[in-house]
Amino acid sequence: MEKTQQVPLAREEKILVLVRLRPLNEKEIAANETADWECINDTTILYRNTLREGSNFPSAYSFDRVYRGECPTRQVYEDGTKEIALSVVKGINCSIFAYGQTSSGKTYTMSGITEFAVADIFDYIFQHEERAFSVKFSAIEIYNEAIRDLLSSDGTPLRLRDDPEKGTVVEKATLETLRDWNHLKELLSLCEAQRKIGETSLNERSSRSHQIIRLTVESSAREFLDKENSTTLMASVNFIDLAGSERASQAMSAGARLKEGCHINRSLLTLGTVIRKLSKGRQGHINFRDSKLTRILQPCLGGNARTAIICTLSPARSHVELTRNTLLFACCAKEVTTKARINVVMSDKALLKQLQRELARLETELRNPASPASNCDCAMTVRKKDLQIQKMEKQITELRKQRDLAQSRLEDFMRMVEHDEASKSGTPHFGNHTDKCEDGSASETFDLDKRSFISDGMSTPLSSARAYVRSHCDEDDLDEELPRRSEDPSEEYCREVQCIEVEESATAYNNHKEDRAEPKNVLGRSEDANGQNVRMRSWNHRETVPGTSTPPENLGTDFLGRPESHKIVFPDLDFGSSVSRNDSMSSCGSDSTGAQSIRTPLGEEGGITSIRTFVEGLKEMAKRQGEVSNAEDSGKMGREIGLDSMDGEFERQRQEILELWQTCNVSLVHRTYFYLLFKGDEADSIYIGVELRRLVFMKDRFSQGNQALEAGETLTLASSRKALHRERKMLSKLVGKRFSGEERRRIYHKFGIAINSKRRRLQLVNELWSNHKDMTQVVESADVVAKLVRFAEQGRAMKEMFGLTFTPPSFLTGRRSHSWRKSMPTLF
Ligand SMILES: Nc1ncnc2c1ncn2[C@@H]1O[C@H](COP(=O)(O)OP(=O)(O)OP(=O)(O)O)[C@@H](O)[C@H]1O
């Protein structure tokens, strides 16, 4: 019989923070330094300078463990970091890093910890012959904000790439499959030789870069290898030796050392800020992207990983300030929570099979009502669902009306545009309009019928805005001095910008998604960044490996495995809002991720024939997961699959959206509408989820140099940039119309534009939405664009119309819905 896939839970835990005090070194002793710090027990370190003046700083600091100078690294490893490091063999990502001022003992500590941990990992592997393991090694350093591969003599900086599934990825980093202990030692020596080291007055061999050594461990049960239902555990452990903070005056650095010191301090400052913000509970924007170090470390700092930080200290009085800084960092770090999961990778076949089984089960249950005992419950549920369906049907009718109204307005508007074009060129146009684009690229036929597509869906403001801008892209008379046209197309633009969906877009989008499937290797997984197949390898070098430690028991058995590729994943979307039906639908959207792999069969196999079936199905899935969760860990599962409310996620997601808008050159009008409409109500979660997925997809396509489809248009990074440029030009035309002279002056002032500067309107619109990190600017940009497009007059109805493709009538009315499937991708 086939194994049932467990739905493991995520485990939230605080970062483990250890403090290691080194003894005074020879130089410090020679300089008659006093040791001002003392570990008074296993968890507390005390500042003992009796001469110190009254200070605001505390004298005692407590952590998970503190270690005195004479304490060996082995002990720091054994009772602190070992358990975390060994999580990797159970499919849980983990990181151990050393933080502290220069010469405080980071490299000393991390080199020992790395070797002990790898020895134990080897040991575990040899004790578990029933599983086939593969261990890969990679090492990079971040030197002066450039990333270098420590396993390659080629000094070319490596690039960071944002991968929608894997997060931030270092491109083209060498990945060595570890053979044995000697191989590991060889690689470690290579890293040591390659790493940037320099002499400062505080440390003869001061590390001038942040070093990250990564081991990626994969394992599969031999019994199931090459079988359809094989699953793989895959996780990485990072050993991170940070460069040390330093004062230029103390390190006596100059020239190259000084420059290095500046880079080191800057990136550590960003790390400190990130940790400080995370310690306060992840509200607001967390600036992970401000340095390469924090981008790479993002998962260890609050993401899907277990993390230990070893803060190293010098006891010397002369270093008291830096020591205090380190302790403050450590105090914040101990408040940071991470949420590690078991990372399970399923083969495509196994995944498909499981989903088909699940689908069949749900259908059977719906067709044959449950046992008499639960009939009553069932009837209640059905009644409830019926009521919900009726309510939604009403909403659909209402939305249809709004859509039809928008459609007729759009048609009027298009007629007006054609008329306008015809009168300009002197040639009458009926129905079709050939649209010349600014870049001189191939013109496009603008067909009213196509534009009014609206059979089932509605477009996002983005698509409509673009349609309008395109239809006017021959208007280059944007200079402030040029006379304005007597008609004001912007009026229509403002009204129409809210409308309608191109149904074809969904189809094309879907097709693209299908095209996205990556090449698979024999284990059914994608190739890694180097194009190497990620394959199982058995381990055959028992005799060469030192260390005999026993693996920790029961590590993470109650974790939630979340996919990076085809992992078992239940929908990421928040299900908690009142629009639960919509949420349910979204869980069936098409995506190329693991989530998609789950969803596709539902749609493609046509197992869902009515909304009731569908809703029940999803509900059942959620319930099933809830059961597993209860069995394993009292109810956390609910949160994992999003049954709770948005839980403060809103701010984080909104920040992500702001950033993605900028990256993907999303229409300013779209941004404004979205920003002003969705302020974090419970019911907004679905829209936010939809927007995020759409943007992530678009960004992903762009970053691969591919096209994305948006409302039926093929977009590339370049074309989206151009569209945005055209939109800015259009908006610049409205500045004079919408704002009085006084208002304009005020706005120019706000955006730092000289009142008498040339083309100031264009300057202004170029400033709008130009800095997603500056929330004041975001708010003001939204305000200005809203006024330009008269958003305020459009009312709340817009919210419901905003890209609302998840209530396709044909689906809800029970028709077997082709268009439903087509409309789904806009959810992602
Ligand atoms: N706990 C310790 N016990 C004994 N010696 C130590 C200890 N920690 C560090 N040292 C010694 O102190 C010196 C500096 O240590 P190390 O190079 O590890 O510091 P670091 O924090 O990595 O410095 P940098 O940031 O400049 O690279 C080394 O000679 C090391 O052997």
From TrEMBL:
The keyword Cell wall biogenesis/degradation is assigned to this record: no
Domain of life according to the entry: Eukaryota
Region (Disordered): 581-603
Residue stretches making up the Kinesin motor domain: 14-336
GO MF term list: ATP binding; microtubule binding; microtubule motor activity; mRNA binding
Biological process per Gene Ontology, one example term: microtubule-based movement
Name of the protein in question: Kinesin-like protein
SUPFAM superfamilies: P-loop containing nucleoside triphosphate hydrolases
Family, per entry: Belongs to the TRAFAC class myosin-kinesin ATPase superfamily. Kinesin family. KIN-7 subfamily.
CDD domains: KISc_CENP_E
Coiled-coil annotated residue ranges, if any: 345-416
Keywords: ATP-binding, Coiled coil, Microtubule, Motor protein, Nucleotide-binding
Organism: Eutrema salsugineum
Residues binding ATP, per UniProt: G100, Q101, T102, S103, S104, G105, K106, T107
